[in-house]
Amino acid sequence: MYQALYRKWRPKSFCDVYGQPHVTRTLQSQLESGRISHAYLFTGSRGTGKTTCAKILSKAVNCLNPVDGNPCNECEICKGIDNGSILDVIEIDAASNNGVDNIRDLREEANFTPVNAKYRVYIIDEVHMLSIGAFNALLKTLEEPPSHVIFILATTEIHKLPATILSRCQRFDFKRISPEDITARLVYVSEKENVVLTENAASLIARIADGGMRDALSLLDRCFAMGNHIDEDAVSSAAGIAGTVHLFSFSEFIAKGDFTSALKLVSKLHNESCDIDSLCTELTLHFRNLMVAKTVRECEGLIVCSKDELEKIKERASQLKLSKILSCIEILEKAAANIKNAVNKKIQLEAAVIKMCSPASSVGIGEELEERISALEQKINLLSSGTVISNKETKEKNPESHSAPEETHQETTFTSETPAESKTEDPKPDAQSSVIDDGPFYNWSDVLEALKKYDIPLFGIMASSTAVIKNGRVIINSDNPTLFDFICTDTHSRELSRAIYDVLGQKMKIAVSNSEKAKAATSPLEDLKNKIKDFNNNNN
Predict the structure, then answer these.
(1) Which of 12, 19, 313, 333 is the most exposed place for a label (fewest CB within 10 A)?
(2) Phi-psi category of 240—alpha, beta or left, where left has phi over 0 and alpha has psi -120 to 50?
(3) CA–CA separation, 48 vs 46, rounded Å?
(4) Percent of the chain with pLDDT over 90
């Protein structure tokens, strides 16, 4: 009869146990020195080797020819324990034998001396499933058992054990097995089974197993059924996950904001019977890798993948902002919780994908400020490199800025004398006394062109601004919150007055308009800026 890989390749000595050196070395030292405890407690997540080490320990204490603390696996005792013919090693499932009567039977049986072996060993698996009465019945025997009895308790939920039980045992914590150790074990088993397992496929299995060797071997067993050559696609198909190719496609669509392609990919994978829960988990892990690659310079030890895949992850991470990656992780975590209780899991994932593709998926003052600073830096860089940003283009991007300021606007007015060193042409004789009619400042684009010659940073700030003339003043309407700070400085205000003088031929008072609606919609950070502006204005 065919035997599952995790049973066939279960380690038979401490040297074969992967990923738990802190446990195996201590147990070997105890066995070599003869300091054997009467009660052990093995705790850790599933598939990390608790039951395996318990069985090895039961053989080692009874082995006729132990070698450096390991059982020889050749004597009649070791072989008898392996094939179950020696009844002095008893393995009990506490999930189905959790009553007081079961523990009472165990106590009575423990009084009998072993038949063939030196010690009678009781391995109680999932011991946290025992009832309170059963724990109380076990206490006295566990504290002072007969000299020929050893208890080995194993559990995945150590917090459910009473303190009275914990204090009577030597505790060993089993860690999650590292992906590197799982990969090495998978390659070893594949070679012994005459099956070709690629490095990428082994890494993918290790990543899916999440620190559990038994889960990794079980998945490898499923892959063996597909052929003698196991690659990444075979693992993805056997595990029912999307695979790295589809994951990179998802992150590409999200970076571009391509709703259509992302939803089509979800439908395609759903039609191919891809498990939605697994897909959501894989997407979360993919964006976690992008987050690590974005923030850690040398991330090779933190991301489990091949070198080629790591380069792809770094390249994709450079295309996304950190705030976007963190927002996607948060969206996927919420989606994973909703998927568990959803009637239609696909819809929940589709909603999450749409949120991730949306440009507004990153919310908060910090992200908003980062976006504005990034846009401002981009404009300044374009101007510094000689690229012209026409006023027409900025008006097309901000059509609302064409309208004149509302009557409810608040104006901060100041004047600046035209500098003596200004090389503008002399105005017409009657220009100083002429009155300019109220209305839109139609030649404002000419002012901006003149300003570009005198003050490039200020031109970048005012590139999308408009202006009107009212009561002999030039009122500037701009959504940029930094404009006021720029104009308040003597240098920038002098250059702006100079540009207006070039176009109109006369000195004008300048005002910056902030509409009440825009002020009401500002963030707390911008509200603080406005208060500072008002304070400076009152002092001036």
Answers:
(1) 333
(2) left
(3) 6
(4) 35
Interatomic CA distance for residues 231 and 491, integer angstroms: 66
Lowest average pLDDT, out of 166-170, 222-226, 259-263, 379-383, goes to 379-383
Concatenated DSSP letters of 489-539: SHHHHHHHHHHHHHHHSS--EEEEEE-HHHHHT--HHHHHHHHHHHHHHHH
Distance (Å, rounded) from C-alpha 307 to C-alpha 290?
15
Burial state string for 506-519 with b = 16 or more CB within 10 A and e = fewer than 16: bebbbbbbbbeebe
Q: What are phi and psi of 514, to 5 degrees?
A: -125, 115
Question: Would residue 505 be called left, alpha or beta, if left means φ above 0 and alpha means ψ between -120 and 50 degrees?
Answer: left
How far apart, in whole angstroms, are the C-alpha atoms of residue 476 and residue 512?
5
For the residues of 189-231, what is the DSSP string, one character each?
HHHHTT-EE-HHHHHHHHHHHTT-HHHHHHHHHHHHTT-SEE-
14 is a domain residue: yes
Give the amino acid at 357: C
Strand-pair partners of 513: 411, 477
Range of the domain at 43: 5-174
Task: Indicate the pLDDT class of residue 529, thresholds 50, 70 and 90.
Answer: low
| Cβ-proximal residues to 36 (8 Å cutoff; 6+ apart), any chain | 30, 61, 150
Residue 320, CB-side half-sphere exposure with 13 Å CA sphere: 37
- CA-based nearest residue to 225, from 216, 237, 214, 213: 237
What is the rounded CA–CA span in Å between residue 23 and residue 42? 9
CATH of the domain at 327: 1.20.272.10
**What CATH number does the domain containing 234 carry?**
1.10.8.60
CB 241 within 8 A of CB 205: no
Nearest one of 448, 528, 444, 515 to 479, comparing CA atoms: 515
What mean pLDDT value characterizes the chain? 81
**Among 144, 174, 204, residue at a domain's last position:** 174
pLDDT band per the 50, 70, 90 thresholds, residue 49? very high
Instruction: Please check whether residue 456 is in contact with residue 383, taking contact to mean a CB–CB distance below 8 angstroms.
Output: yes
Q: Are residues 312 and 233 in the same domain?
A: no
Determine the Cα–Cα distance for residues 22 and 31; give it in Å rounded to an integer. 15
Q: Please give the distance of CA 19 from its chain centroid, rounded to a whole number.
A: 25
Question: What pLDDT is attached to residue 325?
Answer: 92
Report the C-alpha gap between 331 and 372 in whole angstroms: 23
E-strand spans in 415-521? 439-440, 466-470, 473-477, 509-514
By DSSP bridging, strand 170-174 and strand 196-197 are: unpaired
pLDDT in tens, 366-414: 555 666 676 676 667 665 554 444 444 444 444 444 443 444 344 444 4
Quote the CA–CA distance of 77 and 65 in Å, as a whole number. Answer: 10
Domain end (from 129, 146, 174) = 174
Widest Cα–Cα separation across the chain: 125
Establish if 384 belongs to a structural domain. no
The C-alpha angle 361, 366, 367, rounded to 5 degrees, equals 30
| Residues shown for the chain | 540
